[in-house]
Predict the structure.
Amino acid sequence: MVTNSGYTEKIKNYTWGDLEELWAAVQQRDTPGWESGKALEYLVLRAFQLDRAEIRWPYSVRFQASGEELEQIDGVIYLGELACLVECKDYHDAYGQKKNINFEPVAKMRSQLMRRPSSAIGSIFSSGGFTSPALTLANFTSPQTILLWSGIEIEYCLAKRIFSRALVTKYRKCIEFGIHDYDITVEEEL
């Protein structure tokens, strides 16, 4: 089994073209050398890194006294003064079809944000989409801010190489209109 540091070393040399190929492999559920779900985690972080954001690769948060794992964080994106915890989900049903993410990852992200400074936000990236309960919960997590990214948006950002601008746009739409699942593919200015 590859470790987080092994995945980090593997992805660090990926170019935009390599990420597009990896995304196609994620879509086809054919990612040899990547443990289930890991390809999407590292793809998202590397894309932000290529788009000039500072990132923190996946890590565990442990209790200081016992060393027990408290949280597993898929990564962090730092873009200017914006700090964003990352959660990635690549779910499929028994037939291999993309599965929409339910509310549990949103609830988990909300709990993680409650332990952090109020300026921190969260982003959940799904290779598919989100269920109605997930969308509803994300829009009512105040004061925590959780932005939702669908597979269509990931593909769009990869093609245009605009992950950082898309994050800022999604964040601004959330501030202006209270929309946590703003679809950045409708933005003509990106």
The longest strand covers residues 82-89. The domain at 4-186 is CATH 3.40.1350.10 (Trna Endonuclease; Chain: A, domain 1). The radius of gyration is 16 Å. Strands lie at 54-56, 59-62, 69-73, 75-79, 82-89, 121-126, 146-149.
